[in-house]
Amino acid sequence: MDNIIIEFKEKPDLNSPILIEGLPGVGNVGKLAAEHVIEELGAVEFASIYSKFFPPQVLIDEEGVARLVSNKLYYYKADTKERSDIIFLIGDYQGLTPEGQYDLSSTLIDTLVDFGGKRIITLGGWGIGHVVKEPRILGAATHEHMVEEMKAHGVIFSK
Predict the structure, then answer these.
(1) How far apart are CA 98 and CA 95, in angstroms?
(2) Residue 133 burial (10 A CB sphere; 0-12, 13-18, 19+)
(3) pLDDT (tens digit, 9 = 90+) per residue, 109-125?
């Protein structure tokens, strides 16, 4: 078996897509946020990802049908050509090992590049042990220009 298998339902023609990742983690914050945006935008599922780095489990739906755990890719086409399209990654699990994390990340980066994308945004919660009275959006970036761009949208950067 291959380490990672991506089964495409279709390969959409996308305009410089941005990948937004929302996988389970602290409080499932990233997953819930990404699922909400997918639903609000009406994004379309176009691929399933299976991996030996996910737990060897199945999930059973409301009709009693079992399926392998997986991650899914969805796309949303922007309303103008001046805007980037969006690819969303959501799923049941992250990779269970460091090797799995790296292999899955590398495969997703390669997939994004194949679609002409150059930017990834990851979503997640930050557990601090108590309920926050005033929620904030905290950020980190790989380049200074991205920090300034996100600060303009209210993202807070701190050590």
Answers:
(1) 7
(2) exposed
(3) 999 999 999 999 999 98
pTM for the full model? 0.91
Could you report the per-residue pLDDT of 18-49, keeping only the tens digit for each? Answer: 999 999 988 889 999 999 999 999 999 999 99
Distance CA 148, CA 17 (A): 21
3-state secondary structure the chain: CCCEEEEECCCCCCCCCEEEEECCCHHHHHHHHHHHHHHHHCCEEEEEEEECCCCCCEEECCCCCEEECCEEEEEECCCCCCCCCEEEEEECCCCCCHHHHHHHHHHHHHHHHHCCCCEEEECCCCCCCCCCCCCCCECCCCCHHHHHHHHCCCCECCC
How many angstroms separate the CA atoms of 99 and 101, rounded?
5
Place of tokens 């930050």: 126
